[in-house]
Design a protein that fits this description.
- The structure holds two protein chains of two kinds.
- Chain A has 14 helices and no strands.
- Chain A is elongated and about 75 Å long.
- Chain B is α/β, with parallel strands linked by helices.
- Chain B is globular and about 70 Å long.
- Chain B starts with 8 loop residues before the first strand and ends with a helix.
- The chains are: A mainly alpha, B alpha/beta.
- At the A-B interface, helix 1, helix 10 and helix 14 of A face helix 1, helix 14 and helix 15 of B.
Chain lengths: 315, 617
């Protein structure tokens, strides 16, 4: 079969872009995601919320834990968002109540995805009994919804922040492992992996050196997706009282504390709820944009693959 | 065998041009040819030459991203290209039939073969056909390709047929509606040489008897020689030479055709193979003048100024070269490789004894024994399914389910590569069949070649880098390639990189598994020559595995012929090639397509095909 069509395309279209960029595929992916409309909207939403949280970590108009106003005081010029159910400044508490959530979500995501990815790739590469043991173990984990698992762990040991991070991260592991295993199964069978295997290179080095670089796209997509879940689960736990303990402010427990005053000063509930929602929507949109960029990147690889097949078929 | 016969022209193509959609970049241009009633035209070219694009436009079809922009395709005087969309389905399959590469892919795996032929007939012969009439036609169609016509056969599913039978069903379907033109798109890919030979005879036969004009697309000159009366050689989207097969094969006049013929390995003599340097230009970057000029040994200033036009050398022989009349004919043959004295082979590097290999409980190698002496090349020849790749994989430790003995330098090897010690892993290197999957797409050539150096030698950075460059030089890749990724390389360059990676470990034994089968002929010749040079220079022992007998002739000192997991013949190359003893080897030799003029005159009317065909039922 002739590959006239294929050769018509510019050489893999990657030849045009500097090879430097190809060494950092994840940067390229982020860049392309941010350049898309969806990605740009997601990034600005999430960025806005992150900005609020970061500013609050450094500066607040008044102390978030001082009793300044009457309980559930309506907004005024002095108190822009009014007071909460104990008369503390809602604006200060909103500002100060975000950064812990962000740090925890990122940490839980990184832990969950890296551990899950390693398990999944290992299962795919080693196969056989290792595969069965790892994946059946994952299936058991999968039977518990992430939030129930987190509640179980935190409920028995106590609401320690590091424990929440660990519990939420652990909840991601089986899902991530399944996705990465599926992606790695294909790669692990490729000749280029075998070529290195035949030199007697150790499995861990093959996983990190040969297989992982080919899994950057699904890994990035998983990171984005799991970050969204982490945010929602951690905020949810905080709403249920498993998170930062009073009087420390957090968006989740603000919603829960101020529910009783919803009619008097709704801002104490609406603002933290909106911030959580915006953050989750923003990261989700961006993750989606990354996924689409990854498909685009894969399509290029795919085109190269089609050329390959055409050349093979020519024989 | 006069080509200018008086048979009326069935298919006429004039000024055909196909462009990348939405651009003026032509992929194929200025294609003119005629095919007379009952004749077969061979369309030959390497990958990217545009041969399939031309073939598909005969059905009024262009692949996605392409657009037929100019020209005429006349079928019995009727224009096909301008046809309204709704008339095309009747045309395709009805008046112009297409036989694709993979018969298995063309047949629906879940429908019985009888039904599938029946369907074609009903679609094209009108809904009014009575059941009895169609059934009779199915019978005729099957018997025309010498397949059984009983009910039991019609009720079979495609997977219950052999590759040859599947291919015949597809042919039968193509001929079923008595089309005017049939386009064959490399339909013998994947068939063994005997089936292929019968099949080519069948095609030529059917075309001659049914008055079909056929276009046979192939990259393989020898195959085309067996079936086609006229041959058109394509290069960079143009026909560069068109003429009677015998004339073109004996006295090729276009420099590209000449070089291409020289790149085809010979079964009959051990010769130095000559590839063609460089690569064909991509459609968007073709030069102003002759597209072949950058690679042409006889290039002159007039070649660069304007695109060459077709020159008529005779009524039937046309060449697209401005210098065709002025350039002296280069008639020298290829350099013959002197016979090495193989009477006294050195001590064995590799000894295989009673090797039995299995997949699960299914044994595919039944006690194979041979030895590879040091500093020499042993070829393992066999058709697909003979177990040759499994043999290679047992030796390198990739296939672990085997019994018997494999000794390297007198030492028993463990089954899997994981159990073998580092020194053995370093000394035996393997080159994969497909250079497109053997290189990690996320690594540069530099990283790929450095990998074994880092792993086996643990040198300082500067020293390792210098060694990478040196190894790349060995395979004729410049230092420019260090930072390139595999998808930025051509097939030949990829295979060079893959060979460089194997050489980087400084092996004693190189196992090459079909290393050139994914490459074009002109590239294959260069890779094989390079391997031959490297084997001598590095004093390597080599196990060269291939299905292509002709490659072995100049490459190896001794041959092992493998058939269905058993060695049927082995011995020094000259002996096996000149005086094969085993019937299998004899058949393999006689059925392999050759470029020799005798084969080139073949009209397919060889009587033995009839007899052969009867036996395959």
């Amino acid at each position: 079969m002739t590959s006239a069509t294929q050769s018509g395309r510019p050489a893999a279209s990657a030849a045009a872009s500097p090879n430097q960029l190809r060494r950092h595929e994840w940067l390229t992916l982020l860049h392309r995601a941010a350049a898309s409309r969806r990605g740009a909207i997601g990034l600005s939403l999430a960025g806005l919320v992150a900005l609020v949280a970061v500013v609050g970590a450094i500066w607040t108009p008044c102390s978030p834990t001082a009793f300044l106003y009457a309980p559930l005081q309506k907004p005024s010029v002095q108190a822009l968002l009014g007071g909460d159910y104990l008369g503390r400044d809602v604006l200060s508490r909103v500002l100060a109540g975000g950064w812990v959530l962000l740090v925890m979500a990122v940490a839980a995501t990184v832990i969950g995805v890296s551990f899950g990815a390693f398990q999944g790739i290992e299962a795919a590469y080693l196969g056989g009994r290792t595969d069965t043991v790892i994946m059946r173990g994952m299936d058991v984990f999968l039977a518990f919804p992430a939030i129930v698992l987190a509640l179980l762990i935190v409920g028995t040991v106590g609401p320690k922040l590091w424990l929440i991070v660990l519990a939420v991260g652990l909840g991601h592991v089986p899902q991530v492992a399944r996705v990465m295993r599926a992606a790695a199964l294909d790669i692990a069978e490729r000749d280029y992996v075998k070529a290195v295997e035949l030199q007697g290179v150790k499995p861990t080095r093959i996983i990190t050196g040969e297989i992982l670089p080919n899994l950057v796209s699904p890994l990035m997509v998983e990171l984005g997706l799991r970050l969204t879940y982490s945010i929602v689960i951690i905020a949810g736990l905080s709403f249920l009282g498993f998170g930062q303990q009073p009087p420390a402010p957090s968006w989740g427990n603000m919603i829960s504390e101020n529910r009783i005053g919803l009619q008097t000063n709704p801002w104490a509930v609406i603002v933290p709820a909106a911030l959580i929602a915006l953050l989750a929507i923003g990261t989700n949109l961006f993750a989606d944009a990354v996924a689409r960029a990854a498909i685009g990147a894969d399509r290029q690889v795919e085109q190269a693959f089609v050329r390959t097949e055409a050349a093979k078929a020519a024989q | 065998m006069n080509v200018a016969t008086n048979a009326p022209t069935r298919l006429r193509v004039r000024g055909l041009q196909v462009c990348l959609a939405g651009t003026n970049t032509d992929v194929v241009s200025e294609v003119d040819f005629d095919v007379a009633l009952g004749e077969v035209l061979g369309l030959v070219g390497e990958s990217g030459s545009g041969k399939t694009t031309v073939a598909l436009s005969l059905l009024g079809y262009a692949r996605r991203g392409l657009h037929i922009t100019k020209g005429q395709v006349l079928l019995d005087g009727q224009e096909i290209l301008g046809m309204p969309e709704r008339e095309l389905p009747a045309l395709r399959g009805g008046r112009v039939a297409y036989v694709p590469q993979e018969p298995a892919a063309a047949l629906n795996p879940v429908r019985r073969v009888g039904k599938q032929i029946d369907e074609i007939l009903r679609v094209h012969e009108g809904r009014g056909s009575r059941g009895g009439h169609v059934a009779g036609r199915v019978h005729d169609v099957l018997s025309s390709v010498d397949l059984p016509t009983d009910r039991a056969f019609l009720r079979r599913f495609p997977h219950q047929l052999s590759g040859g039978q599947q291919q015949r069903i597809v042919i039968a379907m193509a001929f079923a509606c008595q089309p005017g033109v049939i386009v064959f798109d490399e339909p013998t890919t994947g068939l063994d040489v005997t089936t292929q030979r019968r099949f080519l005879g069948l095609i030529a036969d059917l075309c001659a008897t049914s008055g079909v004009a056929a276009v046979y697309v192939s990259h393989d000159l020898a195959v085309v020689g067996q079936v086609a009366k006229t041959v058109a050689v394509m290069y960079a989207g143009r026909i560069v030479e068109l003429g009677p097969t015998a004339t073109v094969f004996e006295t090729p006049r276009h420099p590209y055709t000449r070089l291409l013929m020289r790149a085809v390995p010979s079964l009959d003599k051990a010769e130095v193979m000559e590839g063609i340097e460089g690569q064909p230009p991509r459609p968007a970057s073709r030069p102003v003048g002759c597209s072949f000029a950058p690679r042409c040994p006889g290039v002159g200033p007039e070649c660069l100024s304007s695109p060459p036009v077709m020159v008529d050398l005779s009524a039937s022989h046309r060449v697209r070269c401005v210098r065709v009349r002025s350039e002296a004919q280069r008639t020298s043959g290829r350099q013959v490789i002197p016979l090495v004295d193989s009477a006294q082979p050195g001590p064995a590097v590799l000894e295989v004894e009673g090797l039995r290999a299995s997949f699960g409980t299914n044994e595919v190698l039944h006690g194979v024994s041979f030895r590879v002496p040091e500093d020499s090349c042993v070829a393992v020849v066999g058709e697909s399914g003979s177990g040759k790749t499994t043999l290679a994989r047992c030796i390198i430790g990739m296939h672990t389910n085997w019994a018997g003995n494999i000794r390297y330098a007198g030492e028993e090897l463990s089954h899997g590569a994981r159990q073998r010690d580092g020194d053995v892993l370093k000394k035996i290197q393997y080159v994969f069949q497909d250079p497109y999957t053997a290189l990690n797409p996320r690594k540069t050539v530099g990283q790929l070649v450095a990998q074994p150096i880092d792993h086996f030698f643990g040198l300082a950075r500067a020293e390792a880098d210098a060694r990478v460059v040196r190894v790349l030089e060995d395979v004729s890749l410049s230092a420019d390639f260090l930072n390139r990724y595999p998808d930025q390389l051509s097939g030949g360059e990829r295979q060079r990189a893959a060979i460089a990676r194997a050489l980087a470990a400084e092996p004693d034994l190189l196992v090459c598994d079909e290393v050139s089968s994914a490459l074009d002929v002109s590239v294959q010749a260069m890779i094989i020559e390079m391997l031959r040079r490297l084997q001598a220079e590095h004093r390597l022992a080599m196990l060269f595995i291939t299905h292509n007998l002709a490659l072995v002739r100049g490459m190896a000192q001794s041959v092992v012929v493998l058939s269905q997991g058993r060695i049927v013949e082995e011995g020094p190359v000259e002996q096996v090639f000149e005086h094969p003893r085993d019937p299998y080897t004899i058949r393999l030799m006689s059925d392999a397509p050759r470029l020799s003029p005798a084969a080139a005159t073949g009209s397919g009317k060889m009587p033995e095909f009839r007899a052969d065909r009867a036996t395959e039922r």
